[in-house]
Amino acid sequence: MPKPKEQTIPITLHLTPEQVEALLRQVTGAEESDWMDDPRILRMLADRDRQVAAEIQAGRFATLAELQARWIKRRKKAKKQATS
């Protein structure tokens, strides 16, 4: 039986270089010297930077408060449908 596809919520994070290093270290267990000069990482970061810039220019980004308001509306709607 196929698993139901989970919904995803796109999130844009603005991280400092130190935060990026810490996150990558946690995910990969690698030290800075292991990945810092890896061209794949640099390409990935550059691609993501371009994508975020395009989203901002198109007005397709949300603040945390906007996301929380959407989630509250969804929860209320789901509860209302469940009790109907």
Descriptive report:
This protein is an all-alpha fold. It has one domain (about 15-84). It has four helices and no strands. The chain has helices spanning about 15-30, 30-35, 40-60, 65-84. The radius of gyration is 18 Å and the shape is elongated. About 0% of the residues are buried.
Which keywords apply here?
4 helices, 0% strand, elongated, mainly alpha, 84 residues
Whole-number count of domains: 1
For the termini, the CA-CA separation is 29 Å
Strand content: under 5%
Q: If you average the pLDDT, what whole number results?
A: 79
Précis, in short:
It is built from four helices and no strands. It has helices spanning 17-28, 32-35, 39-58, 64-83.
Helix-strand blueprint:
Blueprint: H1 17-28, H2 32-35, H3 39-58, H4 64-83
